[in-house]
């Protein structure tokens, strides 16, 4: 078993299944074709197109193995049940540093800050889990600075 538990929401699981399907059914064929074409260029010992295609194939196969491992080991959490405390799967509206922000708390395997998905293991996620609407919690950032977070609402 993994050292730390892998948690995925239903949406995160579906995203990984979609990516896996793409990699196994479309990307493999594309890369295979690139390798075939590159071999036709002649001597593969000095063939950069061949080397690039083989490197891409190795990275793709590594990602396929990683996705399969995540899906096999992950605990899938259903959409957060309506309750009085914040949990994984909730979308939380907060006030941080004078600005309103909205996050969805997800497992580490599907976090994407640019998309507003934060991990339950990051400092902000840890501070929010188990909290209630109206509370103010403190998050300790990697630089040691404390950030006050006021919870406006969550769903």
Automatic annotation (TrEMBL):
Span of domain Transcription elongation factor GreA/GreB C-terminal: 84-154
InterPro entries recorded: GreA/GreB_C_sf (IPR036953), TF_GreA/GreB_CS (IPR018151), Tscrpt_elong_fac_GreA (IPR006359), Tscrpt_elong_fac_GreA/B (IPR028624), Tscrpt_elong_fac_GreA/B_C (IPR001437), Tscrpt_elong_fac_GreA/B_fam (IPR023459), Tscrpt_elong_fac_GreA/B_N (IPR022691), Tscrpt_elong_fac_GreA/B_N_sf (IPR036805)
GO biological process, one term: regulation of DNA-templated transcription elongation
Domain Transcription elongation factor GreA/GreB N-terminal, first and last residues per copy: 6-76
A Gene Ontology molecular function term of the record: RNA polymerase binding
Keywords in alphabetical order: DNA-binding, Elongation factor, Protein biosynthesis, Transcription, Transcription regulation
UniProt keyword annotation of Zinc-finger present: no
The family this protein is said to belong to: Belongs to the GreA/GreB family.
Function field: Necessary for efficient RNA polymerase transcription elongation past template-encoded arresting sites. The arresting sites in DNA have the property of trapping a certain fraction of elongating RNA polymerases that pass through, resulting in locked ternary complexes. Cleavage of the nascent transcript by cleavage factors such as GreA or GreB allows the resumption of elongation from the new 3'terminus. GreA releases sequences of 2 to 3 nucleotides.
Protein name as catalogued: Transcription elongation factor GreA
Lineage of origin: Bacteria, Bacillati, Actinomycetota, Coriobacteriia, Eggerthellales
The gene coding this protein: greA
